[in-house]
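Q: What would this chain look like folded?
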Amino acid sequence: MSETPAPPVSDEGQDSDRDLSIEEYGHRAYVGPMAEFDVGAARQFNLLTMLLGLREYHHFLEIGCGSLRAGRLLIPYLMPDRYCGLEPNRWLVEAGLAKETGHDLKECRRPIFLHNSDFALRPFERVFDYILAQSIFSHTSQAQMATCLREAKAVLGPDGLFAASFHEGEEDYDGDAWVYPESVTFRFETVERIAAEAGLRCEALAWGNQNMQRWVVFRHADAEGAVAEFSDLSAAQAEIAVLRGRLESMERKGVSPADLVRMQERLRFVGEHPALQDALAKDPALHEAVFGAVSVTRPAR
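A: My prediction, written as structure tokens:
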């Protein structure tokens, strides 16, 4: 990660659906699409709690906590002194505390923040049950990823889980620098190898992401058991939730009709997953909850 200055104040650009000005909410735009700030946080929170088992008493670390997109849900969920965040851009954390959580919550829950840019995690001086790095490895070099994973191994509890996402591609980024706001790609095999060299095991997760990234979980190489299996039905529902959110954002922002059609077709394709279709056929309420007004035709068998 690298430190960058706060963006200049500007009167240009507003989020059309919520009338959020860049001047007031630039901290949201810096970490991703403003229109997906809420669901982006929810997806991370649900991954940690519903799939991976995060409870309020666990010690938790977020690498690249930014403007507290996920933190605004995790800080009140966790007990005092349990949330830690690493973020080189101090201004982002300050904006998140001022405009997303409020300073009263900071006083009540006492989150802990460090602002180094070299992935040093041992200065937190604690062992973590869970670590999160959402879309961090979509910007790092291989050397930076290796440093982060070595540091994570040093502070991850024996049964701890480290959830992370990255852009999977056919080629590996071979540069030395942190790349932002653009992103880089890695092959899954490369991430798996770097993790193994750090003494961690890498397992793939099926979980939706607003930037269509691959989710993985890292564990100690000698950890017993496996992460709970994610059912085909749950995976399909998570993917549909992601696609539907993107479709709604595109519609609100006046994206071209061709792009809308492509997203609608992708949504229909995912909706034709056999496990999901079986469940939808038996539960009309589930159909409405998943698709809303989007029509999905059941494929012939």
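The radius of gyration is 20 Å.
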